[in-house]
Description:
Distance between the termini: 60 Å
Bound molecules: flavin mononucleotide
Structural class: alpha+beta
Number of strands: 4
Strand order of the largest sheet: 1-2-4-3
CATH topology of the domain at 53-113 and 152-234: NADH Oxidase
Number of helices: 9
CATH superfamily of the domain at 53-113 and 152-234: NADH Oxidase
Helix content: 25-40%
Amino acid sequence: MSATELVQKTQTSKPNRVQDAEPSTDKHMTNILPLKLRQLETPEQQSDFEPMTQNQPLLVHEQPVFDVIRKRRSVGQVTQEEPTREQIERMLEAATYAPSHHVTEPWRFIIITGTAREEFGNIMAASLSLRMEDRFSDKARAQLMRERNKPLRAPVIITMAMVNFKEMKGIPIENIESAGAAVQNMLLAAEEMELATLWRTGDTAYDPMVKRWLGMTPEDHIVGFIYVGFPKVTRPQRVPTHFSQRTTWLS
Ligand SMILES: Cc1cc2nc3c(=O)[nH]c(=O)nc-3n(C[C@H](O)[C@H](O)[C@H](O)COP(=O)(O)O)c2cc1C
């Protein structure tokens, strides 16, 4: 499917759930990216955009941003109920409001859901097996099986990637910082919708085989895999080290 066909399909077929979107069979990044995002703030603002779903309320529990910041926690245990496509797109849209020096907007998103998670698990297990000295013992087989099942821990995984970021305008580390800010925006948007998220990396995020499967080159960077779902557990508020212990005032 060409990039143009994919865009047309995503704009006309109005899929309800994320998994209704046909996964790209072409592994080139350009074919995965150009999903049109909707504005969701007010009905007036929505009027310029064709709704993707009918009668699907977006469950946003509007709260002061500071409350959302304080409530956000990493939550690994989620149900298999899939967030709606609108909820995921709201997270992506939140990411795009992050600041970036020279307005490089260094982020790319690859959404892994449905059976693509199984394919991802196979790639993760294959890449792990290449890193293992012993891959045939019972212990190694069990470890590979656990690796294969990891993407099934949540119904949706948002991959935040940076493509050709060393060629982007500005200093590379500043673009990475900007991508980190974009991830935090996503996490906060999810928190506001009472979704659970967990930002994961690990060896998988640096593995060339995984990057290739995602349509990336080894030089591209995976900022994180954001596992998203509905929480199975409640987490206590985290009490971080008080900022005064990390702060110097010059006056
Ligand atoms: C860049 C990055 C990578 C992370 N990778 C993992 C990971 O691979 N596995 C994991 O369980 N948590 C991961 N985390 C989440 C942290 O463990 C978590 O944010 C930290 O324990 C603080 O808990 P909180 O998010 O609930 O405040 C990662 C966080 C960041 C920022």
